[in-house]
Write a structure and sequence with these properties.
globular; binds pyridoxal-5'-phosphate; alpha/beta
Length: 508
Amino acid sequence: MKVRVDRTSAVPLYRQIVDQIRGAITSGQFEPEDRLPTTRALAGELGVNRLTINRAYEDLMGEGLIRGHVGRGTFIADRSTDGGAAAAVDGPQAESLAWEHLIARTPARALDGVSAGSGQAGARPGMISFASLFPDPGLFPVEPFRRAMDHVLRHEGGRLLGYGPPAGHPPLRAWIAQSLRARDIEADPQHIIITNGSQQGIDLVARALLDPGDHVLVENPTYTGAVQVFQSYGAELIGIPMQQEGTSLPQLEEAIARRRPKLIYVMPNFQNPTSLTMSLASRRSMLRLAQQRQIPILEDDFGGDLRFEGPELPSLRAMDRSGHVIYLSTFAKKLLPGIRIGWLAAPPAIVDRLTGLKKIADFSTSLVLQAALYEFCRRGDMDRHLVQVIAAYRERRDAMLAALKRFMPPDVTWGRPQGGLVIWLSLPPRLDEEEVARVAAERGVLVGRGDLFHITPGARRHFRLTYAQASPREIQRGIKILGEVIRAGAVRRSTDQAVAHDERLPLI
Ligand SMILES: Cc1ncc(COP(=O)(O)O)c(C=O)c1O
């Protein structure tokens, strides 16, 4: 047999060799005890390192397909005499499955560079993190939530520990509809679908609407968790640059005319990652455009309740009278991310489709958690908690704004968020965000690199700084360090491997 290697393939060379020799053995091209070339000879023939051949032969030996005899060489194993054939099927030496050849192509692309970890990449104990949008566990209302949970278990335990309706627990849907009405959003409880976090809401909408090759129009930069969902369904993204008022209208019009997107995804309040709020005029024109061109909008209001100042502007959904806007929100940021409860307020025409997809995905969101959350809201604990977290996050925002003013050089700029959990910082062109982030991490401060939120390579000179987790004192200390790193120029490359050069920071 002739072994070949393809250096352009993503499959490692040793694996290519293993696959070909295994294929030749199992298809009967070899007889037992046939001799394989020496590692040196095969390495020479293929022009690869001898270690590569060693590794391939070791794997094949591990699978029981070949044997090595010291001093004599490497031979095809006789699997008929020693139970080897059976061992290859059932035993501890069963052939390992080459999963890398089986992975479906479309979602794989969305997962490039994403770790399956907790989203705290690069974190070491004692570091100050301005990188992730995880709310502070120290602010979680554990006791009131436990009381609500005890109450529902005591009174309705048996029923609540069964499966729930796919669209969600009716009392919770009614409570959400009522709280939306207080914000001028007309929504019938029947049109609210409870999801497993708002992340699942994005996924359901994408599943309902997108075919591979469809275009989705997003703000640029945007929330990477949504980008990954859209890409996992094979969608192509069109990014519209963020401006002070929201997205650029002429560019939006041009992109819609040219690419006919299937969906528009926006965050009008405290956009992640820029924290910008879309002006009323921009909201109106975006909605008008979507209506004229018959394009649905997914409005992600993940943190609209966390407002510190300024008037609340009407949501796109509140202004929509023609069923173009799917509104999405979550209890994750304002309450508890761990209960994984978000919701969609959908136009009637798409409710059944979304509910069907929710059922296919996971039958329903945990009924007992929805019931505990409803009880928590019914008792007024949600409203009380909101007052507390808004005060705590406002204090942290103010601490960060004050520290930035004090410690940043004059050519660094940032926005003042009216709510939410992040500040978007812009560096002067002389600095590279990756280098600044790396040196800051060496000094114990994690920041979210702006380029990770851009869907097209842009100017690498932004940071998303979240004040969700650090205390005001830590914020001051961390911003002081970041200021020192920026003032020092941060162009030095370090040999410190504690934080890898290409470490990707959190995606939420
Ligand atoms: C803009 C935005 N939308 C949706 C989500 C998903 O949140 P969850 O699934 O926890 O509700 C996040 C999480 O950070 C987010 O930032």
